[in-house]
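Narrative summary of target 7.
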Amino acid sequence: MSAEAMISSSRRAAQPTAVDGDAPPRTWFEASTGAGSVRLRITGAVRHAADAAIVLHRCSELIDALEDWTATPLAWRWIGSPLPSAAESNAVAVWRFAEDLAAGGDDSDADEPGWRVELPWTLLRALPAPEGTLAQRLRWLPVSVILTAAQTRITADELDSLEPGGADILPETLGADWRGLLRGCDEPARPGLGMPVALCSPPAARRVAARACQELDAADGSDDAWCEVRLDGLRTVAADRLAGWYEGDLGEIGTRASLWRCATDLQPPLPLAAGTLMPWADGWALSVEAICEPARPSAGSCGDAPAAFAVPA
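Modeled conformation, tokenized:
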């Protein structure tokens, strides 16, 4: 870390973040990497570059651990508060102080005083699992997620024939190695993207240690629509569950599900139908209970689909 570089690059009018109520001011720092920018939020007011250098020096234990983990000399610069949309696209962790761990304190959240680290998903997934001090001190905050049970192409005729009481068979579920995909709500709803999840049966899911799957080519000349079936039971997980090095149970999921058209370059993901997964031969099918009303498209893509469905009278 170069304090001189940080001071010289921060002579811009960076100011402590304004917060509501009696919350203390927060100061932001940023360091660039080949896979995006790492951000550090520290509680405390900073009036000028010299103050910023002092505040940053107090975090040397965390900064040294981050540099060892990323194998990158991080050149930190003092910045203003990042835009909310940029902050939400990162994995977020809170640094737990040694005295808090010794006292059994393990419930820090994003709004408590202290140090907060934000890493872009591309960087986090390129790194090995943290070890030593970093693994002990970082507590990953929850992130809203989408768990996809299956992705497949559906013809226009098949989409037109969707109706309550019908069923959509999921060929991917017929194999013993059935895997779904888990991604953050802020990640593109593109075919193929996500972290692999073992789905022996819909009520239970298990993350497997593997790198993120790559996006499939949606523009391959076919007129069929890429669609996905989302399981509605899993809403949030700790951010490290999306990193690629976690392996373990994700908890009870249930069988409530919804059918979505995947995003394209021209349109966002669209809800099509909602229902329940039911056994079908050696696999599963989506039992359709409601069809999305075309005049009421969903406003979001993070599991809000039920509000966009209506069962015909």
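The two ends are 65 Å apart (CA to CA).
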